[in-house]
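Forgive a beginner's question, but would it be possible to get any protein sequence you like and the tokens describing how it folds?
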Amino acid sequence: MPINIPPQLPAAELLKKEKIFVMDEERASTQDIRPLNIIILNLMPEKERTELQLLRLLGNTPLQVNVTFLNTATHESKNVSKTHLDSFYTTFEQIKHKRYDGMIITGAPIEHLAFEEVDFWEEISQIMDWTKTNVTSVLHICWGAQAALYHHYGVGKYDLPQKCSGIYTHRISDPTINLVRGFNDEFNAPHSRYTAVSMEQIQNDPRLTLLAKSEDAGIFLVISDDNKHIMITGHLEYDAGTLAEEYNRDRNKGLEIDVPKNYFPDDDPTKQPINSWRSHTHLLFSNWLNYYVYQETPYEWVYF
């Protein structure tokens, strides 16, 4: 899927080097097709890294995708320049009159806070309410997944005794569901979080289906009965070295942090980790775009 992004976006040149099909606006305008419009609410502090990770995944299927980046207006990002935000991001106030085929809400390193204590909680609540009528399907990642489960379904989160960090094996509950079509019965995925959500609450809610879980890491993949909301409690989008960088960052801060489980060869942080989840990551994003966005979204949105 060629992705249509601003040519000046820093991720664009890196994507081209990786042979990801990036299309400029001039070429996109000559194609007589209806592109998918995807909006990404990027709550991660290192926004440029997350942009690259997600664009890499959106650019790997057969259709054209227009990508819009959304930033919170009620929270000032400290790890990215104002110039970058002004050039490549928009705010909810500027796009709330529009409709989108799909949306991604990322994680955020704010798990230690109650949802209502987050300084942009009111804003993100408005955005999540807006998605009910203005977005065909929403993919929520890590804290974004916990926020969606809480806001839409009343499922709270709780603190873990220690950080869940590492690569864990997960088992699929129903391989016939389109989101996991083509998955192996078991697959690996990264987790990086200090909190979790109740498996019992999710299993007892008829509006939710638990699609994948880990014996060690718990819930991983949840989907709503209307296919509107998909919640991923881990970080399939992570690169091979992301957990290592987080581990070293926390160590340099003096935090007591365990070595990520099943990640470094021989559990030795001096050894280079490998990516054992890449194929399932691409498959999940491809399945989401095909079955839950492209196959379900109207060719022309009707505005009232």
User: Anything to note?
Assistant: The chain is about 30% helix and 25% strand.
